[in-house]
Specification:
By secondary structure, the chain is of the alpha/beta class. It has twelve helices and twelve strands.
């Protein structure tokens, strides 16, 4: 059986380490693991591939991979693979939301605490050599406690569940929106709303965290109208994908102080252009898509991929299977 790894990204960490294919072959001698650092010249291997590990494939590449049975994405988001030929096929698609859940949840908690304690503003005063105690207190919103604050989660996948568990342990009231609200609520979640009740969640939340996939129904989810449903001192945090937020509407809401502030780790265009007006918004905290960064990343990827490879070879259901019709 041939397994083809093809990952190409300008950011070093997102590319697979050189040891990945040799380690797979050592642990699974019957598997021929081939690793590419570019999509150039992969055609012959694709024609023989039964399993592909890749961020994406173009429809014409998918068409030539006639033996393909399983695609694994090292990302949580798979909207880039939702073309009709793949969606309508019998090829299994898995993602890595469980790999990224814990470390992204830590980043979310760091952002919640940073915003609540106004740490970005304190850092700004430090750069200016200003003792900003009174300014921080008189600013809007004022520094606050997160104990008893309401956290509204949009999405209860691998990231959302880990955020809920940790935030509730810190005393936050956690409410959430998900596609199927009738399911048992995950640990730490006090109430689950249906997507049609999103406005109700927004109106109750002190912090709103976006951790939902990009689909037709979630693209542009946080537009001007939705931002207008948030509390005037509430914060928006996006660790999902950039298209979830209407960035123009958010920038205007922040300029007009319609909400307390925001923290974004993901953007419509990445890297965020140097001339983007988002950089200059004082009540916006920007992290450059670093929520999932950790030295343990590829060890976690390897453990997940190989557990699924064992399951695949044994004919058992795979972890992280994507419902291609739903897009997540």
């Amino acid at each position: 059986m041939k397994l083809v790894i093809v990952l190409r990204h300008p950011f070093e960490l997102w590319n697979s380490p050189a040891w990945l294919s040799s380690r797979i072959h050592a642990d699974f001698p019957t598997v021929e693991a081939v690793q590419h650092s570019s999509y150039h010249g992969i055609e012959d291997d694709l024609r023989e591939a039964e399993v592909v590990v890749a961020w994406s494939l173009r429809p014409e590449q998918f068409a030539m991979a006639r033996k393909l049975r399983w695609i694994h994405s090292p990302a949580a988001a798979v909207h880039q693979l939702m073309f009709p030929e793949l969606v309508n096929s019998d090829v299994i698609l898995t993602n890595s939301s469980e790999v990224h859940g814990g470390v992204v949840a830590e980043h979310v908690l760091a952002l919640i605490l940073a915003l609540a304690k106004r740490l970005p503003q304190a850092a700004h005063f430090q750069l200016k050599h200003v003792w900003g105690q009174e300014a921080l207190w008189l600013g809007r919103p004022r520094p606050r406690e997160i104990d008893d604050a309401t956290l509204g989660l949009v999405g209860l996948g691998g990231i959302g569940r880990r955020v809920a568990k940790s935030a509730s342990a810190l005393g936050m009231r956690v409410i959430a929106v998900r596609e199927h609200p009738g399911k048992e609520a995950p640990e730490g979640v006090q109430r689950v709303f249906a997507p049609a009740q999103l406005d109700e969640l927004l109106s109750q939340s002190d912090f709103v965290v976006l951790a939902t996939p990009v689909t037709r129904s979630t693209t542009g989810l946080m537009d001007a109208a939705r931002l207008g449903k948030m509390k005037s001192d509430a914060y928006l945090i996006n660790v999902g994908r950039g298209p979830l937020v209407d960035e123009i509407a958010l920038a205007q809401a922040l300029r007009d102080q319609k909400i307390g502030g925001a923290a974004l780790d993901v953007f419509d265009e990445e890297p965020l252009p140097a001339d983007s007006p988002l950089w200059d918004l004082e009540n916006l905290f920007i992290t450059p898509h670093t929520a999932g960064i950790t030295e343990k990343l590829w060890d976690r990827h390897y453990a997940f991929i190989t557990e699924n490879l064992r399951r695949y070879l044994d004919g058992r259901p795979l972890l992280g299977a994507v419902d291609k019709r739903q897009g997540y």
